[in-house]
Amino acid sequence: MEFRPIILVVGILLATLAASMAIPAAADAVVGNPDWQVFAVSAGVTMFVGVSLALTTRTGGSRLSARQAFVMTALSWIALTVFASLPFAFSELNLSFTDAFFEAMSGITTTGSTVITGLDSAPPGILLWRALLQWLGGVGIIVMAIAIMPMLRVGGMQLFRMESSDTSEKALPRAAQIASALGVIYVVLTCIWAAAYRFAGMTGFEAVTHAMTTIATGGFSTSDGSVGHFDSALIDGIATVGMLAGGLPFLAYLRTVQGNLTAVFRDSQVQWFLSIVVLAILAAAGWLWFENGHDPLQALRFAAFNISSVITGTGYATSDFSLWGSFAVPVFFFLMFIGGCAGSTTCGIKIFRFQVLYAAAVTQIHHLIQPHGVFIPHYNRRPIPDDVITSVLSFFFVFGICFALLAIALGMMGLDFITAVSSAATAISNVGPGLGPVVGPAGTFQSLPDTAKWLMAGGMLLGRLELFTIIVLFSRAFWRG
Amino acid sequence: MEFRPIILVVGILLATLAASMAIPAAADAVVGNPDWQVFAVSAGVTMFVGVSLALTTRTGGSRLSARQAFVMTALSWIALTVFASLPFAFSELNLSFTDAFFEAMSGITTTGSTVITGLDSAPPGILLWRALLQWLGGVGIIVMAIAIMPMLRVGGMQLFRMESSDTSEKALPRAAQIASALGVIYVVLTCIWAAAYRFAGMTGFEAVTHAMTTIATGGFSTSDGSVGHFDSALIDGIATVGMLAGGLPFLAYLRTVQGNLTAVFRDSQVQWFLSIVVLAILAAAGWLWFENGHDPLQALRFAAFNISSVITGTGYATSDFSLWGSFAVPVFFFLMFIGGCAGSTTCGIKIFRFQVLYAAAVTQIHHLIQPHGVFIPHYNRRPIPDDVITSVLSFFFVFGICFALLAIALGMMGLDFITAVSSAATAISNVGPGLGPVVGPAGTFQSLPDTAKWLMAGGMLLGRLELFTIIVLFSRAFWRG
Predict the structure, then answer these.
(1) Do residues B365 and B440 share a domain?
(2) Residues B294, B216: contact at Cβ < 8 Å?
């Protein structure tokens, strides 16, 4: 395999990461925190490595093969995480390299699990860096979903090749241009939410960092109390809408901007997603109202915020839903797996796969009743190609196996049952908090053994890259060519 | 739909059930326990209903359609459960109808979850009835797997149509004859294990009842302490081999009897099943030895027994594995889902489905690496037809959804997380005990609210009949014809 074009891309991405380290460096310098030097040195090292890699591998711009694209994707995310962890490792927080890597992976994959406590008194540089990582990770995954995933045909993502090429034929000729347009939409949405948060009473700094981690469905906050720290119904509402906005397909936003105003809501993914969210919110709010005796409006506020946070994999919290009673824990546990729409910043199994799985199951039932009938499952009013069905179904199976193995491995590290299974789920679905007293919304992952943190970081990467992007690399057939 | 042939079958089955009630009646009469009257009256009522149904619906023996077969299967199991619960409801145990129905469903589906405590002092009739129900349920499912399931093509069971018809062409001309031959093998195995248990020190009564629930992978015992009550390494070993024997495909036993001596071990299902079992036993035994400080031989004995009990869905216990430490709980949780071979008495997802899913996932990976290559998944050295792959994958998805919904529903009943998810898993996989302090191997399901018991009974039936047999009945298309 020709590695040079891969190294070139990794080099360019590292240089970009280095440049972005200037922002927290500046923030720390402004308030006179000595950590600005850590960011400056980290930026220097990262820039040096990135530029060196890029310069030594300049090529004539050949097209990447699918195999090269797999290696490039995995290598880029890992390299970015390693260098992104430098500021955490050397800042005044004094994190171990394990903790720094965990935090960086949790950031860049938009997971939002944290090992840091004392965020309220942390220097602005670190807080900004956490938010920036999630923001970059979020836009990175949107671009990947358009530009790379359909080509890799991972877990049914080829379903969206036709969609994006549809658009490209009509309006924008190439994937790169679509990606830039989506980037602009991403920036605009972030600005809107920053303004809204500022208006609702956050400081400018809080507004910007929370806007970045809301649209990225990341979930890092500037307070140990997460968004609950602000204790404001308005902020909760803004965050709820923002997290759901981050969970919609960004391509649909592009169509809306291009004049097709109802594009977002005519996408069947969006219809399913919002229906599930509304249903879950009503059920949870009803429970909080009737069983827990909350005021109905407050029940709705808590339910809407926390359900949206978990289903989109954001991971903000305003109250410890582990304590909502027996009903809530299994609901939140299974919600973790769902995720948002394809082409959004969310992770998890994702709505379109449930639609494909549901269509396949219904077809199956019809087939059982009329063995000689011909039934074809549909998605968005089009027949689903056979290979997409098999891809999606295999994805679901492999997701289940990875989750089970990760949970068992975490159990072997000494984690109790709810901590082990919810940590496995939260990692692989890029949610953020787990369930139970240790890693629940009120806790952190600090106390976990190092091996558990590495395993979880692996799970986050696996989930973020749709499993197969990583798994193929472990196949002998891949390296035989 | 013509219901008469369906009612005829239900009537015949009820008459058979009534006849089998004579056995516990005799047992109670011998020891002078007044419960013999309960069995006699229950037998009378059941016989009357069964014979009436059969007589009023005598038909000219037409072939059943697939739709009739679905209704017949579901209706038979439900009717048998209702009448089987009569002795529980009216015996001196004084169970509520909910408890009686739960116990009967748990018996007939070979689950082995119980709501009864004080087994050690219970009259022999009830103990025999529990064992008989599991034994009849076990042979019922083997016969169904040969005679009905391949016709219903549920969850990939059509994979075994070719196998059974292969055999039938060569040696035994018709499904009915194969079924009778399997019944004989089932009786012989039960006798062998009864003799072995008797030899190992059980009383004759204990030996017979345990042999019945071992080969049926049922798990009802005559003691609250389950097999742990006997505290004998020899009995543990006999039970371990017996549970695994119940988890093998009975058709392979038939081939062995017909002279193909290695047939059992050349079946790839069996190879996978035994490999997984051995691997899990070694891992658990190693853990008990190194981490918990057990004597190595004792570790192997406990591990072999309890792993075999859970993976085959038998549900016997010799020690509360919930207390083996953090490692054990997730392992046992996920083992619950696996099950044994198709055509055995076990439930769960079953090994052949994991083989098909694995083959599909590997094909998927090869396809990702070489998008234009042609890769065909194989099972037992034969290509797997596309519709089988889709069936199996849909089964896995529907299994996951049913499990999640059942766990959430049980959470709503007030069960804590581990009780809710493990009860859902143990019901749908027909295992027996759950995990945790309430429903773990040392507990019972007695304390659960009635609604939870009904939900679990529904889950047991759903799992036992391979989900789709029940689910199709809820589809409008089914009743439209």
Answers:
(1) yes
(2) no
How many domains, chain A?
A: 2
- Cβ–Cβ contact A447 with B under 8 A: no
Residue A52 CA, distance from chain mean position: 30
A371/A282 same-domain check = no
Q: What is the pLDDT of residues A228-255, one digit of tens each?
A: 999 999 999 999 999 999 999 998 999 8
Interface size, chain A vs chain B, as Cβ–Cβ contacts under 8 Å = 174
Name the band, by pLDDT with cuts 50, 70 and 90, for residue A481: low
Quick one: A458 and A363 in the same domain?
yes
Cα of B332 to nearest chain A Cα, Å: 9
Tokens of B143: 């016969």
Cα separation of the two ends of chain B: 8
CB contact under 8 A, B417 and A418: yes
Looking at the structure, tell me whether residues B371 and B415 fall in a common domain.
yes
Query: What average pLDDT does this structure show over A358-365?
Result: 91
- Rounded Cα–Cα distance for residues A373 and A198 (Å): 59
Element (H, E) at A462: helix A450-464
Q: What residues of chain A, 333 to 362, have a C-beta less than 8 Å from chain B?
A: 333-334, 357, 360-361
Query: CB B390 to CB A391 under 8 A?
Result: no
In-domain check, residue B97:
no
- Residue B162 sits at the chain A interface (C-beta within 8 Å): no
Same domain, A376 and A458: yes
- Average per-residue pLDDT for chain B: 91
What letter represents residue B251's amino acid? L
Contact between chains at A390 and B390 (C-beta distance less than 8 A): yes
Residue of A nearest to B416 (CA): A326
Average pLDDT over residues B421-448: 94
Residue A314 belongs to domain spanning = 267-336
Chain B closest-CA separation from residue A459 CA (Å): 17
| B456-469 per-position pLDDT tens digit | 999 999 999 999 99
Give the global pTM.
0.94
Q: Are B314 and B218 in contact (CB under 8 A)?
A: yes
Clarify whether residues B476 and B357 are in a common domain: yes
